[in-house]
Amino acid sequence: MMQVPPSPEIQFVGDASISGMSVFQQVEMTVGAGQWTCLLGQSGVGKTTILRLLAGLGSYVDHNGEIIASDGQQLAGRISLMAQSDNLMPWLDVFDNIVIGSRLRGDAVDSTLAKDLIEQVGLSSHSHKKPNALSGGQRQRVALARTLMESRPIVLLDEPFSALDARIRAEMQELAARLFAGKTVCLITHDPGEAARLGEVIYVMSTSGLRQINPPSSSVIRPYDAPDVLACQGQLLRLLREMP
User: Which uninterrupted H or E stretch holds 198?
Assistant: First the structure.
């Protein structure tokens, strides 16, 4: 696997508004260094706004606060983002979709790394196929490989597996846990089971702020039917259902 710079801890503090309308009030959140931080909450409470601010894509958001990396460096240039939609270019094959970032920046394409990633996500026999010839799970594997191709120490995931069926979603969680090991990962999810399997730091966000929940004591990735995972999943679901 490729070498990446050390993954920092990130501190997010502040409130946010758009065109004078409050998105969320004061929030304090730590994205653990080299860990999976999961952020759950109902739609509209500001989870994606936080993610976009972390990614440097919130120019339209008035953020009154700070985003600080533990190593004191800027986050710009150190983040890769994987969204719910795979956003594949329909005219490019698997290989070219994975290396598109390098080509758009005018960088030399590391074909060896790209082929290695294609193999790791199980698509070696599909590398010359266009997106319309791939299943939903295969397309998400391409998006995962493209994210890894960027070789960034910080990874932001905005519900990347929510559109997949339960079996493929579980497989993608396991694959992501393996391939993102050691990176600082922030995952937005609506799925308590996903957070219970992956979360090393877990927050539930509501209109009244953030609540941190103790994750299961076992290491990532956790069996979906382990007692501590099921207990955490139940606790998270209860909290989400109790929200106004």
Answer: helix 192-198
